[in-house]
Amino acid sequence: MLINNASQARRERAAREAERQRVHAERREAFELAHLQDLHAELTELLLVAETRVLRSCSWHRLLDTPERRADQNGRERFERLEASATELKRTTNQHVEKINRLTGLVIPDRLRTLVGNACGRYEYLAEMIADDGPDRTEAALPGVIDQLHGAQGHVAARIRDIYVSAENLHGSTTVRR
Question: How far apart are CA 37 and CA 51, in angstroms?
Fold first, then answer.
């Protein structure tokens, strides 16, 4: 009887430990999943305004090119509208980049953190290179940067799918009833 009780106690301890580890893994995945979904949403928001911001900044810099354009009344009004628009877009994109940087600093796997960080860093550099490299070179580099941001977003989406697949494997396959 003592042997049976000891054996039963070991099995119960092992079952409790296995359940504790399963619950811990589920919580960890849920936490990571929430952050990945937020990161994916921020990348989506950044992509909605990133290209427009750079293109408007390039237009704004082109208006600054010649004194004649600055002196022209129509040009000055257009310049002021573009400047206000570019400034607002800059503020918006900076907010998204800051949120992305915060989210990648949490529970994101290192490889994914590097991909997202590199894409955002390249975008930030591009958005600021207009003054040094001019609007033409900036516009030429823009598609590659946007593609890199889309690639990072795709990797985030793939990680989200991986978590869902692993959760399905933990719980066994589920059937949908209609």
Answer: 22
